[in-house]
Amino acid sequence: MRSDSEPRTTTSGSRTGGGGRTGPLAAPIARHRVALGMKLLLYAVALTALFTFPDVAPSRYEVTVAITLLNYAVLATAWNFVGGFTGYISLGHGAFAGLGAYGTALLVVKAELPSFPALFAAAALVGLIAVPVGYAALRVRGASFVIVSIALVLVLLLVFQSWASFTGGSRGMVVPRPFPGMLRTEHHRVFYFLFAALLALALVTWWLIDRSRFGLGLKSIREDEDKAQALGTPTFAYKLVVFVVSAVFTALAGGLYALWFGDLDPVFQFSILSGAYMVLMALLGGVRHLYGPLLGALVVGYALEYSKLEYGDTPLHLVTAGLLLAVVVLFMPDGVIPAVRGLAARFLGGGQSSIREVTAAELLHGQRAAGSAAPPDSRTRKEVSS
Amino acid sequence: MPSAGLVFQSVLLGLLLGGLYALLAAGLTLYFGIMRVVMIAHSAFLILAAYLAWWAHRETGVDPLLTLVVTVPLFFLAGVALQRLLLSRLSPVTLTMMSVLLTFAIALVIEGLLGYAFSGTQRRIRLGYSSTSLELFGARIAVVKLIGFALAALSLLGLYLLLKHSRFGQALRATIQHREAARLLGIDTDRVAGYGFGLGLATAAVGGTALSLDSTIYPSLHWHWIGPLMAIIVVGGLGSVPGAAIAAMTLGMMQSLLQIELAATWAQTIFYLALFGTLAFRPQGFFGGRLAQRF
């Protein structure tokens, strides 16, 4: 969870700590070691919990909740390939999950492919579909992208409901189980680990992109697309590639869900709400961080499952989701991870390194606050100021 | 091949529907022009107004048209409050994306509250003149549809006159064109932007009342409206009111004509086809100006 997903512009801040010349580095190094040790311990605990959970879970219900949470985590992480790196917010990623689910189901039922080859074939097909969609959506900036992403869900819902002869329409569609003879408990156990593996794959891919030159280009798009383009970043190609990668992971999660759950309904598969949940989870956790969407998925997903169990399915869950989204957007658009880290830095002391990374937004804000010293068109001049 | 009479009737119905689309799209265009905000909650407010008209009619028996006296000022104030209290708080750098999420959240809240208050049951207003229709060159047109169109047309005309021929309209257009320059000329752009949002939301109040006259309403209906409306403003060119009106009329008519041969749900896909086609081949829209290029 390094902060190297933070952005572009480096400004030299003031050096903190270090009163005398005797040992200004000793304290930071010790602190670094403690932090590393705690991080390793945290990883160990998390992995142990992950691997032993199906065995210690009190009942089958807990395992199904855990699978649902893992599914949300994969979806939110997959969404974050586009949302986190490029800053383009897609409200329609539910469409790719739905296409992955229906693609897998249709390939199993109509083409009689075995379950898992069908899953991968469906994900590949969704990747192909994402190319023209991304081409139309990414030619233009933000506003139109959002419009296309919502329209995609709505049009697919119409098509999958209307085309009853092919998709089963509103009656839904039953997906054959991948392991016919398996007991239900064992079935859940297998899918628990399959979802965990998919999550690991998504996280590793995100981490690799984050550290690559490709990732740097994507993040430069997020901070200032015009400038990135002017510096020679092939912005359109980058956006399109990462959009397709994101769609493929989303489709894999959707397809795996179809194989696990075994029953599809267009209203739930092509729901605008599922896309909104992905955004909410990623934003709540923090889109600039590897584990942000995972954390958000655990919190939001658990809250969703809990309220479903306690209060049943009332329209009030829409109100809750809406209010939560509004609160996140208004008060912590960077998510809880930066907020918590800020608190931690305050209590542990220090925290700021001599070379600080700030976002373009923070820089602009700081310069506006600086007042008359800043040039009137600070957008074009921000690099030269210290 | 459908008969000429049927085609004529469909064209008329399409035009009547297009009028309503045009009014609502004008509201969306206003928001976009003022703040570069894609207002997802627009159609949720539309359904809210329709529910208010239905509820007032059920409780007191008043004509739904009379609810306009209350809903239009109420929605105007809500629009001003929305802009001044919520949207203006967002950071300007990420405004477009975050405002989409915020208005989306508002749409969810409205849908959830409507579902909670009135349940998900489909509702419809029964009026004395609900089933009356007029004969026009062999086409039968329901009176309620004509009333809805008249409401939409009058409001659009009023909006046009207000924007073109009043001092406030000039200030609003100046704010849309160049905010800093407008401020240098002494326009209180923040207040003008707030009133502009109020006007936009008032179109949803008028549209909702017109909708309640001849449609069955339910809480999640707004998703069926926001898609076509967004397609209209993209095809028309984001930020262009005449473009949105022309696109609304054209697409409304095409939808109506397609319904002769196809089921209603398939006919609605024309909006999305137009949206994808426009973005792939002419991303600035067909009537868009300078604004549309970059969004």
Q: Which chains share the greatest interface?
A: A-B, 50 and 54 residues
Order of helices and strands of chain A: EHHHHHHEHHHHEHHHHHEHH
If strands are numbered along the chain, what order do they take across the biggest sheet of chain B?
A: 1-2
Classify the secondary structure makeup of chain A into a structural class: mainly alpha
Class from secondary-structure proportions of chain B:
mainly alpha
Assigned CATH architecture of chain A = Orthogonal Bundle
For the record, give the distance between the C-alpha atoms at the N and C termini of chain B, rounded to a whole number: 41 Å
- Number of separate strands of chain B: 2
Assembly state: heterodimer
- Tell me about the largest β-sheet of chain A: 2 strands, antiparallel
Q: What is the strand content of chain B? A: under 5%
CATH topology of chain A: ABC transporter involved in vitamin B12 uptake, BtuC
Task: Give me the strand/helix succession of chain B.
Answer: HHHHEEHHHHHHH
CATH class of chain B: Mainly Alpha
Label the overall shape of chain B.
Answer: globular
What fold name goes in the CATH topology slot of chain B?
A: ABC transporter involved in vitamin B12 uptake, BtuC
Whole-number count of domains of chain A: 1
Separation, N- and C-terminal Cα atoms of chain A: 28 Å
What Rg of chain A is obtained from the alpha carbons, in whole angstroms? 23 Å
Outline of chain A: globular
Any idea of the CATH class of chain A? Mainly Alpha
Explained architecture:
Chain A is mainly α and 386 residues long. Chain A has a single domain, classed as ABC transporter involved in vitamin B12 uptake, BtuC (Orthogonal Bundle), CATH 1.10.3470. In chain A, 72% of the residues lie in helices and 3% in strands. Chain A is built from 17 helices and four strands. In chain A, the strands form two sheets. In chain A, strands 1-4 form a two-stranded antiparallel sheet. In chain A, strands 2-3 form a two-stranded antiparallel sheet. Chain A is globular. The model of chain A is unreliable at 1-21 and 372-386 (pLDDT under 50). Chain B has 295 residues and is an all-alpha fold. Chain B has one domain: ABC transporter involved in vitamin B12 uptake, BtuC, CATH 1.10.3470. Chain B has eleven helices and two strands. Chain B has helices at residues 4-35, 42-60, 68-86, 95-118, 143-165, 167-177, 179-184, 189-214, 222-236, 241-261, 264-281, and strands at 133-136, 139-142. A two-stranded antiparallel sheet of chain B has the order 1-2. The longest helix of chain B is centred in the N-terminal third of the chain and has 32 residues, at 4-35. Chain B is globular and about 60 Å long. Chains A and B meet through helix 4, helix 5, helix 12, helix 14 and helix 16 of A and helix 4, helix 9 and helix 11 of B.
